[in-house]
Amino acid sequence: MKIRKTGAVLGRCMDKVENTVILTSYVTLIALVGVETLRRALFQQQATWGPEVAMYAFIWLSWFAMAKHCRYGTNLAFLQFREAMPAWGRRTLEVMDMTLWLTIGGVILYTTSAIIERNLASEQTIFGTSIPLAWANLAVPLGWGFSMVRIAQRLFLVLFDWDQLEEERRNQAAPAA
């Protein structure tokens, strides 16, 4: 019971961080695109750093949105096929999926650490700004780290609390009143 309570607290904290990163990234993208569009239309000018910062904001948005969806199993999957399967088949495929995702995540964490080390060693910055490139590139390992925790949460539920996942699945499938 203590594991479930700790998992629920961790899940709520992760939800808050994910939502904050996603919202901040969206606001950054909207502000950059809006302001730069007006500057281009009205003054025929554009900041050289705008596209770079927007690209990195999108990267932060993408990886943390992936983490959020990993917990609920709404990331990449063939759901129509799975829904027709018996429970043991769905569980088996979920365990295979999560094992594959955790393996890929391990490879990504390992390889991106070298990239960030090089960014820090060479003191690279985002073009046209004083923002360290390592901060922008941290989105990948941080997003994957969050994703791997979410995947582990889901794996725990698949292995030890299948009924809760089935209840979530039924609630998602129920039409809104």
Strand content: under 5%
Low-confidence stretches: none
Shape: elongated
Q: Quick one: how many beta strands? A: 0
Number of helices: 7
Q: Whole-number average pLDDT? A: 88
Number of domains: 1
Order of helices and strands: HHHHHHH
The SS-based structural class is mainly alpha
Q: Main beta sheet: strand number and arrangement?
A: none
Gap from first CA to last CA: 33 Å
Give Rg in angstroms: 20 Å
Instruction: Please give the share of residues in helix.
Output: over 70%
Helix and strand topology:
Blueprint: H1 2-43, H2 50-72, H3 79-83, H4 87-122, H5 133-137, H6 139-160, H7 162-173
Features:
elongated; about 180 residues; mainly alpha; single chain; 7 helices
Report on the structure:
There is one protein chain. This protein is mainly alpha-helical. It has one domain. 82% of the residues lie in helices and 0% in strands. It is built from seven helices and no strands. Helix 1 packs antiparallel against helix 2 and helix 4 packs antiparallel against helix 6. The chain starts with a helix and ends with a helix. The relative contact order is 0.13. It is found in: Cell inner membrane. GO terms for molecular function: transmembrane transporter activity. Keywords: Cell inner membrane, Cell membrane, Membrane, Transmembrane, Transmembrane helix, Transport.
Explain briefly what this protein structure is.
The chain contains 7 helices and no strands. The chain is mostly helical and 177 residues long.
